[in-house]
């Protein structure tokens, strides 16, 4: 049992360790009923309510739900809805006439610009994939946030959000507790969870993967065994914290790619206690323990998977979240960077800090790239020449952290990504210097 301080302004910050655990936490002593989920009368005059993240009949190992004990039931946190426009936040399918998604693309960091932007107004969709209406696929976004949401709340009915900060610090005040994240950390906000986003240190910039499909889970390790990669104990879920504030507020909901807003007279973050396994969480990427080649060859990049959202096809992810962080390179007589390839997955990469070993030039922190399915890509000429001629002594890749949102679906560029974002028009030229080296008259032995 974990307890957080009850607070009018929801200042309590504390975390419980573990991934997918069945947690229980209360912000007031005795607020959590024991022995049953829905007593005739709940402590403190609270209402019992279940938040389900999966179908009721999902297998036990995949079933996700939490029981919440709140000041008002959620039906009091919505009124009549009015449609609103958030023109830069797009959902799949979003195929724009005249925009070619077939290609290899890279962008410089998106500048902050002038004006005040919140979590809602500062979201910029880069790609969409699949179909939000059939709950398959994803969207990738860049967020630019300079101002906190004030008496304003949000939830997405379309999917969970995986948040990857690159600059600045954010606080997510959610129904189930408070999460604070900085660059080098991630947070996952489940589908249907209400929250408010506040700026701790700004301006803030980062990346978001909006997952329409099955929730993110830890990948199976197979013969790697019980340890390394992302260890469950390093994931942190917040303790209960609540607001009891009577103030005019707005709740914005994203549903089937459209946005609707409702006026309410109070804060909806009023869960005093909860138990279950459907909750937000954060993770410190510096605790990821990479596994790699210790003799020869570069393994498939899937070896660096932090989280995976599975599809109905075994072994084929709806989304993989893959991390390329500091690590040692020790492979003998091997080309150590990622090799040239084309594959069925579409790869959206982002740079958090440092240099990426396969693209040391032009891939700046805050930048991103897209290599769509079945389009060849790999190291640029400089990276190839360096890796092909380097003395193969143990080498530490240091002060580097980049990631990949990888999906089985083609990723389609938005109009903003193609025409407004700082795309590098000469990116595809980075492979022009890969000259023919073949000489059939020379015996390789």
UniProtKB/TrEMBL annotation:
Gene Ontology cellular-component terms listed: cytoplasm
Molecular function GO labels: homogentisate 1,2-dioxygenase activity; iron ion binding
Keyword Metal-binding among UniProt keywords: yes
Pfam families, alphabetized: HgmA_C, HgmA_N
Enzyme type, top EC level: oxidoreductase
Organism: Sphingomonas koreensis
Protein name (Swiss-Prot/TrEMBL): Homogentisate 1,2-dioxygenase
Homogentisate 1,2-dioxygenase N-terminal domain sequence ranges: 15-285
EC number: 1.13.11.5
Record carries keyword Hydrolase: no
